[in-house]
Structures are given as C-alpha cells and as structure tokens.
Known about the structure:
By secondary structure, the protein is mainly alpha-helical. It is built from 8 helices and no strands.
Amino acid sequence: xxxxxxxxxxxLINLAISPFYILMxxxxxWKNTRxxxxxxxxxxxxxxxxxxxxxxxxxxxxxxxxxxxxxxxxETGMFSKNAIELLSRLYGNYPEYTTLHGWVHxxxxxxxxxxxxxxxxxxxNIESWKIGIVSxxxxxxxxxxxxxxxxxxxxxxx
Length: 158
C-alpha cells in the first residue's frame, strides 16, 4: 500500500479524533473528560489538520480552486442538474482533494454532534453506558446516533 497524501490525511485525522471518542466511551464521568470536551480542541484539531492538508494539496496538485468554485456556484449553479456531473468530473480529476473534502466534513460533523450529545448527557446525568453507546453510534453512523440520543434524552426532560 502506497502512502498517498489522502492515506496520510485519513490516518492522521482519525488518530486526532480517536482520543476524544475514547474518553467519551471509556471515561465519560472523569472530570478531565468533561473539561477536554468543553474545550474547542475536539473540533479545532481536525480543522488544523484539514488546513494543513488542503494547503499541501493546493501546493502539490495545484487545482484551480477558485475556478472550481466559480464553475460550481456561478456557472453551473449549485442546485442545477449539471452540478452532480460537474462534481463527479472534478472529483475524478482531483481524488486527493475529494477524500480530504468529504472525510473532514464527516469527521468534524460527527465530532460536533458527539460533543454536544456528551455534554448534554452529562448535564442531564444520563447513565455512562448510554453515553458510551451514543458516542459509538455517532462516530460510526452520525445522524442515527444523534437520533438515538434524542430518544434517550426525551426520557430525561420533565
């Protein structure tokens, strides 16, 4: 297996967020877990990695990012029938960019949801094992985990 830019990014971004999920699953009631999750590091760390790699991709592959955005948002129209064809063509030309772009959205979105659910569950004194299950569901299935948490949360609203 060759270490491509997207492979390195994938490994680093997953290593960066894993400690936060481990804390939420294994040590949800530990005072430092709450302190860490209340900080912005669970969100900022993946953003920093994203900025580093997007800079590397732009420097190495030299895609015309402004031209891509102009084509997508102005010329093609984001919601037009041609947008999907344009995106497929562009992503086919820049697979490294595609991997970075898509994966970072998933990672940061899931972490944002997991962080919110964790902090809310701690405030509501929801059992640790439920916090752990919800964190696992969010990391692997994002919105499904949030939906499960909302069902659990409803029981604690009086």
